[in-house]
């Protein structure tokens, strides 16, 4: 009799455990299906038709004469936007503007300013006044000439000022110009793409100031998106890993280091689907590995090791 009571007690204890296990397995299965469907929606189907002149006639791109910025300008012009190009060199701006006019038959305007200075925004606002802007790409940025320890950076005071002005102040001020001057709120539509960097996902030793400014861009963008998403405005933080550009000094593109054109085409398909994106599927995998799978201490250690080697090689070549 006692033995039968023990068996009944065990059966009674097993039943709740069975349902807990079944619920856990079902929850994990549903989560996995959701993630797979979300990934398919983002990386296969995309949202490529969202960005069109229906948002507004004009697209504004800063840092538009090279690399990713130039590719954004080309792709948006191909989609029919009139282009406002902003960068430092008037000669390069004119070359890009002529190319867009010839290839895509779109209207172009240019503003030549040095984003390292803080007294330029009245000129930008005056040039943009009256334009119906649908898309803004805050792409202008500057990095180190080579990896270096913070206190060893040449002309450190000017270096800090220039990097903050170019990488951080420009994003805030140009967003302010767009919000203040243009009918984003009246039309309840508009897209702002703020180009951060994978370096902003965690500290990168020997590129410490750069990675900190890019972390600011990411936080600023995600916070601003939450503030204004109910008005129908999309603000996206874009965090690419290495792309084959002059800034990265990568000459030969690979699967994980794409050309700017390939990267931009992939990134634009994520607009409206992700508020924070690595923009390109191989980069998304790298982002997941380095932020979710590998401890941050190891990522920081490996980044420091890589940059020390690059620093040593650069200094040896200079000798």
Helix-strand blueprint:
Elements: H1 2-45, E1 58-62, H2 67-78, E2 82-87, H3 90-104, E3 108-112, H4 121-128, E4 133-138, H5 156-181, H6 184-187, E5 190-195, H7 208-228, E6 233-238, H8 260-268, E7 276-277, H9 281-293, H10 296-318
Parallel strand pairs: 1-2, 1-4, 2-3, 4-5, 5-6, 6-7
3D architecture notes:
The chain is an alpha/beta fold. It has one domain: 3-Layer(aba) Sandwich (Rossmann fold), CATH 3.40.50.720. The chain contains ten helices and seven strands. It has helices spanning 2-45, 67-78, 90-104, 121-128, 156-181, 184-187, 208-228, 260-268, 281-293, 296-318; strands at residues 58-62, 82-87, 108-112, 133-138, 190-195, 233-238, 276-277. Strand 1 (58-62), helix 2 (67-78) and strand 2 (82-87) form a beta-alpha-beta unit. Helix 2 runs parallel beside helix 3, helix 2 (67-78) packs across helix 8 (260-268) and helix 4 (121-128) packs parallel to helix 5. The radius of gyration is 24 Å and the shape is globular.
Helix proportion: 40-55%
> What is the average of the pLDDT values?
88
- Which regions are unreliable across 5 or more consecutive residues at pLDDT < 50? none
General form: globular
- Helix/strand order: HEHEHEHEHHEHEHEHH
**Side-by-side strand order of the widest sheet:** 3-2-1-4-5-6-7
Q: What distance lies between the first and last C-alpha atoms, to the nearest angstrom?
A: 91 Å
CATH fold assignment: Rossmann fold
| Number of domains as seen in the coordinates | 1
Strand percent estimate: 5-15%
What count of helical segments does DSSP give?
10
